[in-house]
Design a protein that fits this description.
- The chain has 40 residues and is an all-beta fold.
- The protein has one domain.
- It contains no helices and 3 strands.
- Strands 1-2-3 form a 3-stranded antiparallel beta sheet, with no helix packed on it.
- Strand 2 and strand 3 (25-31) form a beta hairpin.
- 0% of the residues are buried.
Length: 40
């Protein structure tokens, strides 16, 4: 598992990105309050 935090200069929000690998599959989860990056 890998965790990174990105401080965006464009929108001013902080994004927390979590990545996990399961065999050949990679799952990326993004935690953010930015409406342009956030999706449901």
């Amino acid at each position: 598992m890998t965790d990174i935090t990105v401080n965006s200069n464009i929108c001013g929000f902080t994004h927390k990105i979590h990545g996990t690998k399961d065999g050949k599959n990679v799952t990326i989860k993004i935690e953010t309050d930015c409406p342009k990056v956030k999706f449901q």
